[in-house]
Design brief:
The protein is built from 20 helices and five strands. By secondary structure, it is mainly α. It has a three-stranded antiparallel beta sheet with strand order 1-2-3. Strands 4-5 form a two-stranded antiparallel ribbon.
Length: 458
Amino acid sequence: MNTPSANLRERFIERIKVLNFPVKTHPYLTQWARSWLKARGHLSIERTNAYFDALSRTSRLADWQFQQAVTAARILAEDLLNLDWSRHYDWEGLCLQASDPSSEHPQFLRQCHPVEANAPATPPPAPTAQPPDGSSDLLADTLDRTRRALRLAGRAITTERSYCQWVTRYVRFTAHQSGQSPEDTGPASITPFLNHLAVERHVSPATQKQALNALVFLHKAVFDHGEFVIDTPISPRQNRRPPTVLSRCEVTTLIQQLAPPWQLAAQLMYGAGLRISEAMSLRIKDIDFSQRVIQIHDAKGGKHRVVPLPRKIAPELQSLIEELRQQHQTDTAAGCANVHLPPALARKYPNAANDFAWSWLFPAAKQCPHPRSGVFARFHLLEKSMQRQLKRVLKQTSITKRVTCHTFRHSFATHLLEANTDIRTVQQLLGHSDVSTTMIYLHITKNRGAGAPSPLDF
């Protein structure tokens, strides 16, 4: 290694042995450590940022390779060189920013599981006494037909993913119990499966209802069994559990603990009522400073809506966009400025992938290959990166509530209602189709039952 210490290489190898890294990774970790030192990354945070920024542009690395480079630099900086700045550097956040999306990500799932729109239904194989595994022709054919029916019906991608999971479990259960396909047994096999979920798996009535919806769709739209009646064990739906809501003080505490860029994402989720998927997938063009609004496209249910841009974070957003503009110019010069686009959009606007307006507001730290085509382009930060960061900072606070990223959205709605905002306005901002969905927040506002005095205090 090109280092200030002659024996640093040996010390590094000893350290990764103590940390129980697999022997096969030792040469690669050593190589990454040498590369970081050669780039003078140990001199400052700015040098380290520049090193990983250059690494993301010049190398088509898998996320685990990029994370391996971060790990090597972290061991050197913290354990061997004892650099003061390294203790406060967000190594974990850098790894999360470099995570590649899987083929099951909602924006890639349908491209990775293509179906033929006019393909005839394939008859299932002969009944067998052995339950089919995940690669069986029976299961693969059933899933393919289910996806085709869902897409022709215009169902959401999240619905497709959920239904296919239930169909997989249902096909395996039915084959294990009867040795037949659900198409052969008919709708009568739904009840035993629901009984299994309720009695043996102890799933909630809401989950049972979700499974029932998936199986009814399977038998009606895929197997063409027509109308039928089944004996369902599902109990009437109980009242919805009130969502968890943070106080304004708790929201401020959590947001202040988060590091960029997740801090700004949390401010958008709370300040504009965005879902985590909506916040992470924002593009530059969606921010309208002149009208002070944010445009949300292809949200849950394929809906579009406009929400107000919080004035408090407008300067920070403008600063971020200027940084991204400079990054885009550098990426363009290096030939790696393209971003992932939906296939139909890419066909309609062939040059949009390289247009700054279509760049992500929260881009990943490096380019990644498309799970199906293999084309390298930049994706946005994954939802799990925000979730992990929130979970980490939550442990550093005294908040004992069960908090998720969606809690920011619940708090947004509740605090607006507490400020006497019309419920129809809140419904529109949240993108709810039915006002009854928004009504749940009325039950947890301070001027409702939660604010009533206790007789113990009289």
